[in-house]
Each structure stands twice: as C-alpha cells, then as structure tokens.
Design a protein that fits this description.
By secondary structure, the protein is α/β, with parallel strands linked by helices. The chain has eleven helices and seven strands. It has a seven-stranded mixed sheet with strand order 1-7-6-2-5-3-4. Helix 3 packs parallel to helix 6. The chain starts with a helix and ends in a 7-residue tail after the last strand.
C-alpha cells in the first residue's frame, strides 16, 4: 500500500508541476491540480504569496493531513522561503511532540541515523511519504525543526478524565504543559466543532435525559480543553523560537479564522506579524466559494476528488 501511495504521490506531483494554476500561453487549464486565492477572492501567484510570507514573523500553513498535493506544496513553500531568507528560518510542525525534541535535534544534527530516528520517535503513519521530504530538506539546510505539539498522552487524559487529572502528574511531566495549564482551565465553553450539531457528533437523533445531556456537555468541554491544550502548547513553543521567521505546519483546525494556536500566540506576543494559509476542497476551482472566505490570508483550493492518502 505504501508503495502504491508513493507512486500515486509522485504522479500527482509531476502533474502539479507540469500544470500550474496560472493560464499557460493565454489558455486556461481545464484540470488544474490546485488554485491559489487571497481572502478577497482574487487569484494569487505562488511567488506573490511567498513574498508576502517573508514580511511576517510567523507563517501558518493549515493542511488536510491526507492530501498528497498539499504536502507537495508545503515542501515547495518551505523550500522557497528558505531560499528567499538564506536559510534564516525556523520550521515547526504539529506532527512532532515536544518530548521528542532531543531525538529530533540529534537526527537533524546528523548524530543519529534515520533508522534510529524512525524507530525511536513516535511518528505519524504517513510520515515517510508526506512529511519526511520537508524534514530532510530542513536537515540538509541546517534549519532547526521544533517539535511544537504537546505529548498526545496529556491531551488524551483531559479528554477521558478531565483537566484536573494533569495536576497528578510528576514535575518532570508537567514541564510540557504547566506554563499553559491555568489558561486552558479557563476554557469552559465547548467548541462548536465538537457539539451535537457538528460532523464530529453522532448523527443519531434520539431524545436524551437531562443526565445524558449533562454528560455529553461535559464530554464536549473535555474535548475542547484537550484541543486547547494542544493549541496553547504549540503557541508557547513557537513563542520561544522566534529568532527567525517561523513557519508552522498544522491541521486547518489549529489556525483557521486566526483562532486555535494564533489565539494563544497573540496573547503572548501581540505585536507579532502573522500570515495564514489554509486548504479547502471545492467542486469548482474557478473562484473561491463565499463560504470558505474569512478563514485565512491565502487559500490553496483543491478539487474535491483530489487523491487522499488515507
């Protein structure tokens, strides 16, 4: 399956390179691999977007984790920024958790081989196909990679047992979240993403007792706080590494509408200049749908039926 996905990914990349979204020789492409828009609905060139990014302190690229095209574009964005900024840039990724930083540093410095890095760092299942290219590019350029995310076990503890459970952990564990814990405790309204009206909730519509409704409400609060812990920790880790412009790769949820990570980052560093990119699917790529506007500064618009790796 991995071999097949790799072949498909390479084919898609070849198509995307051969068929850029701009018109070629005055003829509009019939089947573009993607389109690039600004939030006002105007089309943009890739180079113009990169130029805008270089004028900011933090660049957020929001992705769909299973899109081959967006992972290729992330590589191209990072590569272009690194060229423009003479490698004076820092890379951060949601896909790496903070307690793996020492192993990431060892690998990026060439102190341990890839085999040991892969064996001893709990990486996402699609790491080799989707994220290794950008990591290895950063390694070759001697660019620091920051593991920004909270270790997932702590977010899961909140989801299952509540935020007070984190206070029971030893001091060595608390180093990964103690700086933001009080802030996350103050998140007491469930995100609509987890509410009964959202796609995350069950589609079964049965009447619930007050006790069941209360349990559901508490569950949604716990889920919201678990996501808030991730966002707050990622913001905290970004804020500590701002010597150079910082590009951060994360799922759309964590940066759309200038919320998520950005909420907590602005609380810590209100003067930061931040630019955001998001990814959306549309049946029609000829314009940016109104329903998608307001999410980011730039939009990578992909065909709804574009290949997905999982």
């Amino acid at each position: 399956m991995n071999l097949l996905n790799n072949i498909i990914r390479k084919v898609l990349i070849a198509i995307a390179i051969a068929l850029p979204f701009n018109a070629i020789a005055g003829n509009q492409l019939d089947k573009p691999a993607y389109m690039l828009y600004k939030d006002n609905g105007e089309t943009s060139t890739f180079e113009s977007m990169i130029d805008d990014m270089t004028k900011n302190d933090v660049i957020f690229v929001g992705e769909y984790h299973n899109s081959s095209v967006i992972h290729w574009l992330e590589y191209e964005i990072f590569n272009s920024l690194a060229d423009k900024l003479d490698n004076k840039i820092t890379l951060g990724m949601e896909m790496f958790e903070a307690d793996t930083q020492i192993k990431v540093d060892e690998y990026m410095s060439g102190l341990i081989c890839e085999e040991r890095f892969l064996a001893e760092t709990y990486l996402w299942n699609n790491y080799k196909m989707d994220y290794a290219p950008i990591v290895d590019n950063a390694k070759e350029r001697n660019i620091r990679l920051i593991s920004t995310n909270v270790p997932r076990r702590y977010a899961r503890v909140i989801s299952s047992d509540g935020i007070d459970s984190l206070k029971k952990f030893p001091e060595a564990s608390k180093q990964y979240f103690y700086e933001v814990l009080e802030r996350v405790e103050n998140v007491n309204t469930a995100d609509s993403f987890f509410s009964m009206d959202s796609p995350m909730a069950s589609k079964k519509s049965k009447k619930k007792s007050k006790e069941e409704e209360q349990k559901s409400a508490e569950k949604f609060i716990r889920m919201t706080q678990a996501q808030a812990l991730k966002d707050a920790v990622m913001a905290n880790n970004i804020s500590k590494h701002l010597e150079y412009p910082f590009i951060h790769i994360n799922g759309n949820y964590h940066s759309d509408y200038n919320k998520g990570i950005i909420t907590y980052l602005k609380e810590k560093k209100p003067s930061l200049k931040i630019i955001t990119v998001t990814t959306v699917y549309q049946d029609d790529l000829s314009k940016l749908d109104n329903k998608n506007q307001g999410k980011a500064d730039y939009y990578i618009v992909l065909p709804t039926n574009t290949h997905k790796t999982f």
